[in-house]
Amino acid sequence: MERKILGIGGTPRRNGNSDILLQRILQGAKKAGAKTEAVFLRDYAFSSCIGCEACRETGACTKLLDGMQLIYPEIRSSQGIVLASPAHNYNVSAWMKAFIDRLYCFFDFTQDHPRKHSSRLAGQGRKAVVAAVCEQLNLQDMGFTIEAMRSPLSTLGYEIVSEVGAYGCFAKGAIKDLEDVLRHCEEAGRTLVDSLE
């Protein structure tokens, strides 16, 4: 696994505030010496998890042969990950939610109920940053957006080393006026890379 940071963008708006947020975090990571790659979920045709449980037998998502099959190798080969989403109805975007649900295939389960689980991504020093953009002005109005990314990544075995919230942003590119947030983004990228050493 190389010192690579994978950015996952969950916004339907091309070059909007969430994209800018993600790109600034990756820019900070790149300046800190990491290889970076951005994946924008809107560019991939993929379905949400259908709960078929086939991955419990194979250790991979084999029922849905779609765009996620292009993203899985990038996840496995990246030591760091960044998830960036706009707040949609107090939560992550539908694309980000579908992406997170499709990470279910990285879990192994016991046969008892409730089943105990372990992640095949855990114990490898993986680190993460989560970032979200909200039109409203505070964390309460952003709802579960950051938590909806933080908790699944933590369960998968990632250590969350930084969180970025951008508030009061709706118009396309409005985040460019928030210099303190953009600085925080670059710092988050550098922190992510430093945490891998």
Could you characterize the architecture of this molecule?
The protein has about 200 residues and is α/β, with parallel strands linked by helices. It has a single domain (about 1-195), classed as Rossmann fold. The chain is built from seven helices and seven strands; from the N terminus they run βαβααβαβββααβα. The protein has helices at about 15-30, 55-60, 70-75, 95-100, 140, 145-155, 180-195, and strands at about 1-10, 35-40, 80-85, 105-110, 115-120, 125-135, 160-165. It has a five-stranded parallel beta sheet with strand order 2-1-3-6-7, with helices on both faces. Strands 4-5 form a two-stranded antiparallel ribbon. β1, α1 and β2 form a beta-alpha-beta unit. α1 packs across α7 (about 180-195). The longest helix has 17 residues, at about 180-195. It is globular. The protein starts with a strand and ends with a helix.
Topology of helices and strands:
Elements: E1 2-9, H1 17-31, E2 35-40, H2 55-58, H3 68-77, E3 78-86, H4 94-101, E4 107-109, E5 117-119, E6 127-134, H5 139-142, H6 145-156, E7 159-167, H7 179-195
Parallel strand pairs: 1-2, 1-3, 3-6, 6-7
Antiparallel strand pairs: 4-5
Helix pairs in contact: 1-7
